[in-house]
């Protein structure tokens, strides 16, 4: 067993290096299991173990009846602070996910985002973030974002009903909530976003997330929790995003804090 594992590790490392170096580029076909077995002088099962490991890492994926291919995974640049620049949503018409696409040199269509909107009882985390009683009614706006028909992430936002009732944020039509998206709606409601708190965590996906995001075996997700506040510290949105880890590279630019002052 140990010799089979050692031979499998060698094949895995060799193929992984070819993918990393670009010798096996995006959408390139891997040799078949039989071809790998002949090339490395091993049993087909040993070669299959190496390919399975690449699948678990999300580096390759199977195509029904057509073999195994290197995944096309150019990371989408997800802006950190800059994606919330007021110039994008207050003074122009750019929504956050579209700002990421523009920064990445990629195209987008309004229909890349679909959503369902409903009133639900506030769960513990939602209630704590929005400052309402647990079980109180809140609006839930659950979005699925795709790029070229491939899911990239979900984002579910929660709002107090008195903040968004009758606005575009309660409309479940495909696409952003009008020019400037949700932040523009809050601004028009007199609830201009002033500061944001975000937490990021990498974790393994739930079975439901695997199905929704069409994730390959073994691929993790990055969960984002965001609370948006108005200038008077009122929480105006709480959002939970789940991102396919292989689809994004986070990018931040900010001034270095100097809370100690100068002597």
From TrEMBL:
> What keywords does the record list, in alphabetical order?
DNA-binding, Transcription, Transcription regulation
The Gene Ontology biological process annotation of the record reads: negative regulation of DNA-templated transcription
User: Which InterPro entries does its entry note?
Assistant: Bact_HTH_transcr_reg, Chorismate_lyase_/UTRA_dom_sf, Tscrpt_reg_HTH_GntR, UTRA, WH-like_DNA-bd_sf, WH_DNA-bd_sf
PROSITE patterns membership: HTH_GNTR
UniProt region (Disordered), positions on chain: 152-182
Q: Does the keyword Transcription apply?
A: yes
The UniProt regions of compositional bias labelled Basic and acidic residues, in chain numbering, are 160-171
Pfam families given in the database record = GntR, UTRA
For this chain, one GO molecular function annotation is: DNA-binding transcription factor activity
Residue ranges annotated for the HTH gntR-type domain, each copy included:
5-73
Q: Which PANTHER family match?
A: GNTR-FAMILY TRANSCRIPTIONAL REGULATOR, MANNOSYL-D-GLYCERATE TRANSPORT/METABOLISM SYSTEM REPRESSOR MNGR-RELATED
Q: What is this protein called?
A: Putative HTH-type transcriptional regulator SCO4628
């Amino acid at each position: 067993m140990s010799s089979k594992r050692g031979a499998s590790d060698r094949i895995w490392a060799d193929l992984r290096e070819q993918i990393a170096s670009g010798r096996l580029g995006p959408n390139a076909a891997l040799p078949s299991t039989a071809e790998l077995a002949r090339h490395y002088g091993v049993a087909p099962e040993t070669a299959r173990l190496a390919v399975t490991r690449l699948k678990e890492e999300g580096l390759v994926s199977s195509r029904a009846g057509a073999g195994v291919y290197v995944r096309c995974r150019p990371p989408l640049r997800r802006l950190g602070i800059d994606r919330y620049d007021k110039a994008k949503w207050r003074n122009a018409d750019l929504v956050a996910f579209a700002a990421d696409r523009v920064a990445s040199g990629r195209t987008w269509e309004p229909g890349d985002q679909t959503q369902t909107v409903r009133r639900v009882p506030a769960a513990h985390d939602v209630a704590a973030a929005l400052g309402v009683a647990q079980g109180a009614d809140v609006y839930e706006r659950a979005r699925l974002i795709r790029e070229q028909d491939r899911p990239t992430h979900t984002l579910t936002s929660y709002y107090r009903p008195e903040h968004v009732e009758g606005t575009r944020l309660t409309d479940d039509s495909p696409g952003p909530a009008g020019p400037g998206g949700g932040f523009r709606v809050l601004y028009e409601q007199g609830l201009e976003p002033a500061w944001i708190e975000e937490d990021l965590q990498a974790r393994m996906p739930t079975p439901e997330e695997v199905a929704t995001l069409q994730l390959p075996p073994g691929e993790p997700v990055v969960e984002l929790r965001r609370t948006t506040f108005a200038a008077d510290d009122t929480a105006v949105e709480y959002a939970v995003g789940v991102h396919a880890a292989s689809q994004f590279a986070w990018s931040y630019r900010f001034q270095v804090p100097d809370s100690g002052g100068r002597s």
